[in-house]
Amino acid sequence: MGALRSHARVIRVLWVIGLGLTIAGTFALMERMSIGASMARRQRWTSWFMARLTAALPFRVKVSGKLPDQPMLWVSNHVSWTDIPLLGMLAPLSFLSKAEVRTWPVAGWLALKAGTLFIRRGSGDSKLIQKQMGQHLLSKHSLVIFPEGTTTDGRSLRTFHGRLLSSAIETSTPLQPVAIQYLRDGRPDQIAPFIGDDDLLSHLCRLFANEVSEVHIQLLTPIQPHDKERAALAFEAQQAVQVALFGEADQPSETAQPDGARPAAKAA
């Protein structure tokens, strides 16, 4: 029964990915024909796709808090690649991703057609990406970043880096802090994290072979960026997520990196 269940889940995910490829292909065709494929339309269709991908994953999802009624810069802790569909289903959103994702088979093309912004680490293009982020926010399109810059095992929180928050300050865009937590039998889920030398296929097989786990997504009180330095803004968002996840405000130590932490699965 376990193998049958796992195979059924794989088939369902492949079917959803096929839908995503169809949507992405439609946008590619519209681009070639110079037909409008606005960011708003991309975000709406991406959210629709993310909802169906989430439904195909072995999670029971609980969402608390109020969805923003205006465009915001979402800042979330980062545990797994599954954070992407889980957050993407909530609202029309775009994501900031590391440039390597653009080269991933299937996923990279889907991300590109969904309106993802890509950034190369250490390449000196931070000003360019900040400009792109600012234009994105000024156009009233919400954007998600993972300011830890890496995935963790979900049992601790790393420092939120403020470099990419300049766009929120410059455009007076509020921050939407998000705390995402994976639980299995009331404890931090050790299957959901995408860390270390894990690869996507192995991670999917492990997820599908196990029972359904719980995910709690908390939409926290928005933070206004007015008259704040980016480091202070990052720390305020970090503390909000820290309290939501662990019940206490305590600045995480940069040296307390979970074993096997890896660069962010999807976003910088």
Note down, in words, how this protein is organized.
This protein has 268 residues and is α/β, with parallel strands linked by helices. The chain has one domain. The chain is 40% helix and 16% strand. It has helices at residues 2-32, 39-56, 83-88, 107-113, 126-138, 166-171, 200-208, 230-246, and strands at 59-64, 73-76, 94-98, 117-119, 143-145, 150-151, 175-184, 187-188, 213-219, 262-263. Strands 1, 2, 3, 4, 5, 7, 8 and 9 form an 8-stranded mixed β-sheet that branches. It is globular, with a radius of gyration of 18 Å.
Which structural traits does this protein have?
268 residues; alpha/beta; 8-stranded mixed sheet; two-stranded antiparallel sheet; 8 helices; 16% strand
What general form does the structure show?
Answer: globular
Number of helices: 8
Q: Which structural class should the secondary elements be placed in?
A: alpha/beta
Order of helices and strands: HHEEHEHEHEEHEEHEHE
- Binned, the helix content reads 25-40%
Summarize model confidence as the mean pLDDT. 87
Domain tally: 1
Low-confidence stretches: 252-260
Query: What does the main sheet amount to?
Result: 8 strands, mixed
Strand content: 15-25%
